[in-house]
Amino acid sequence: MAQELTASDYQYALPDHWVVHINQPDDPFTKLHSQYVGRAVDIVVASGARTLLEAGCGDGWNVAQFVKAGLDAAGCDWSEKAIQYAKINCPEADFYCGDVRDKRFNERFPDKFDAVAFIEVVEHIPPRDTVSALRNVLDKLKVGGTFVLTTPHINHPRDNAQHYRHFTPELLQSIMDEVGGMEVVAFEPYGDVVADRQYWAKMRWFDNRYFTIKPLATKLRGSHDYSSHSSWDRAHGIIMMAKKISEI
């Protein structure tokens, strides 16, 4: 079980997502991140949404992808450093440091959003707080609006100290039933944990603490493909699409 986390646990030393996408475009994490964020963007665009809130936006890289797709996007996160980076790297969006329940947040964003994104956030929330946190976030979504959530599947080992738990579609469905006011439209798998394990088993021969064979490591990185969705028994993570059908 992860220790209880606070805002101090999320004070970015660097704008990590921007760094890896710029400096390590062939890294498996970068490819995987591009896959599920890209799919989230496609879902929101296809819904016809014009405004979007990403709750737990971190350093703003995801928000920037929504902006590039033509959305009027905003991001909210409790990490001051992350929001500082987000404002620098995506000045076209509106960012807020704090909680969506804050009076100042509601003064800045008085209108509800057409879409809300929750990308790799729910695993960072203590289980006892998950339902209330989702209700708070989804209070900012218009009735009829689109909600997209991504999170690791239980197939993926919980080796991140900042993760409380990983999920299955059935567990997410039960949580959304308890949240109320939402209709889950679909679940999709992303990534491939078997391919990941095979990749790292090979990579350790070319890139380890003793030596690096750059040409072979670079070739292997470039060949690791995340272009298609995996099956559920191999899924790295879950993409959930839902519609708000009534006020919560």
What gap, in angstroms, lies between the N and C termini?
Answer: 30 Å
CATH fold-level topology of the largest domain: Rossmann fold
* Share of residues in strands: 15-25%
Q: What class do helices, strands and sheet pairing give?
A: alpha/beta
Order of strands across the main sheet: 3-2-1-4-5-7-6
N-to-C series of helices and strands: HHEHEHEHEHEHEHHE
Number of domains: 2
Label the overall shape. globular
Uncertain runs are none
The radius of gyration computed from the alpha-carbon positions, rounded to a whole number of angstroms, is 18 Å
Within CATH, the superfamily of the largest domain carries the name Vaccinia Virus protein VP39
Spell out the key features of this protein.
alpha/beta, Rossmann fold, 2 domains, seven-stranded mixed beta sheet, 9 helices
Summarize the structure.
The protein has 248 residues and is an alpha/beta fold.
Characterization of the model:
The protein is an alpha/beta fold. The chain folds into two domains: 15-191 and 228-244, Rossmann fold; 194-225. 37% of the residues lie in helices and 21% in strands. The protein has nine helices and seven strands. It has a seven-stranded mixed sheet with strand order 3-2-1-4-5-7-6, with helices on both faces. Helix 6 (130-138) links the parallel strand 4 (113-119) and strand 5. Helix 6 packs across helix 7. The two termini are 30 Å apart. 36% of the residues are buried.
